[in-house]
């Protein structure tokens, strides 16, 4: 696992966007794994600016999002579908047929999970997976204790995750209690992984990730064994991490 240390959120966003744009330019077909949350918003803004200025095309991209809340429809302002549409998809040349986000409205959630996992395989797996990290080490919505072997599945959200995401809702009661998420194995199988972290809120997570053990009680720790994982983190997020230079 390699770290690219940057100054702040703006630099992190720009560096990650450039990383993605380079891949888009150098491959004829790309399967991108996308994330939601506050962290990647700046990256998406840069991708949009680049699309408008340089016309980098998304015509050959297929995307798979990490997760979705159960019970929120596509047009719910807090659904991840809506987030992706508003923050990226509606601004670039990607058609709705090219994008994949699990549906939290399917009455058969088990088959939704299986179909989602199969679809990723049918597309030959994810080339580049973009990731944020929860303060408890969650990736996607894989909470501490989730098996490293897990595939796309339904999860109950912890109180801390619901509290962290409550800022997007009018009250914590409105935050769904369950979600569908790609599993840890589904994420780990990506050919390349780019994890982003910015600010004080991610300091504990960075210390546990980089200085701690590989353990299911800290889901992101598995990424340390991934052959092609990069973290782009800013100075504040890395404050407190011992021996950052070992990961450069
Ligand atoms: N499911 C998402 C994760 O994919 C995201 O990484 C995490 C961190 O969010 P933020 O980037 O807003 O800190 O929040 C949510 O729980």
UniProtKB/TrEMBL annotation:
Keyword Hydrolase annotated: yes
Entry's EC annotation: 3.5.99.6
PROSITE patterns, per the entry: GLC_GALNAC_ISOMERASE
Enzyme class: hydrolase
PANTHER family, per the entry: GLUCOSAMINE-6-PHOSPHATE ISOMERASE
CDD domains: GlcN6P_deaminase (cd01399)
Family: Belongs to the glucosamine/galactosamine-6-phosphate isomerase family. NagB subfamily.
Residues at the catalytic site: 67 (proton acceptor), 136 (for ring-opening step), 138 (proton acceptor), 143 (for ring-opening step)
GO molecular function terms noted in the UniProt entry: glucosamine-6-phosphate deaminase activity
Signal peptide: none
Catalytic activity: alpha-D-glucosamine 6-phosphate + H2O = beta-D-fructose 6-phosphate + NH4(+)
Pathway: Amino-sugar metabolism; N-acetylneuraminate degradation; D-fructose 6-phosphate from N-acetylneuraminate: step 5/5
Function: Catalyzes the reversible isomerization-deamination of glucosamine 6-phosphate (GlcN6P) to form fructose 6-phosphate (Fru6P) and ammonium ion.
Gene3D superfamilies documented for this protein: 3.40.50.1360
Source organism of this protein record: Metabacillus rhizosphaerae
Record HAMAP family: GlcN6P_deamin (MF_01241)
Bilayer-spanning residue ranges: none
Protein name, UniProt field: Glucosamine-6-phosphate deaminase
Chain ranges of the Glucosamine/galactosamine-6-phosphate isomerase domain: 10-228
Designated gene of the protein: nagB
Keyword list, A-Z: Carbohydrate metabolism, Hydrolase
């Amino acid at each position: 696992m390699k770290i690219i240390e940057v100054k702040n959120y703006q630099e992190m966003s720009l560096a990650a966007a450039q990383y993605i744009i380079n891949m888009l330019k150098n491959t004829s077909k790309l399967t991108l794994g996308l994330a939601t949350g506050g962290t990647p918003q700046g990256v998406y803004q840069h991708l949009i600016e680049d699309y408008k200025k340089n016309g980098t095309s998304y015509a050959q991209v297929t995307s798979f999002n990490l997760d979705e809340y159960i019970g929120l429809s596509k047009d719910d302002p807090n659904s991840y579908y809506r987030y992706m549409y508003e923050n990226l998809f509606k601004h670039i040349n990607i058609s709705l047929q090219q994008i994949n986000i699990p549906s939290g409205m399917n009455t058969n959630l088990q088959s939704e999970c299986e179909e989602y996992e199969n679809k990723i395989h049918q597309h030959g797996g994810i080339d580049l997976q973009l990731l944020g990290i929860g303060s408890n080490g969650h990736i996607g919505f894989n909470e501490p204790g989730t098996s490293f072997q897990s595939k796309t599945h339904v999860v109950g959200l912890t109180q801390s995750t619901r509290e962290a995401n409550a800022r997007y809702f009018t009250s914590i009661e409105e935050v769904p209690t369950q979600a569908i998420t790609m599993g840890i194995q589904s994420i780990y199988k990506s050919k390349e992984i780019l994890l982003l972290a910015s600010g004080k809120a991610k300091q504990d997570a960075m210390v546990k990730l980089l200085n701690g053990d590989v353990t299911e009680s800290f889901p992101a720790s598995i990424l340390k064994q991934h052959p092609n994982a990069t973290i782009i983190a800013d100075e504040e997020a890395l404050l407190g991490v011992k021996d950052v230079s070992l990961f450069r």
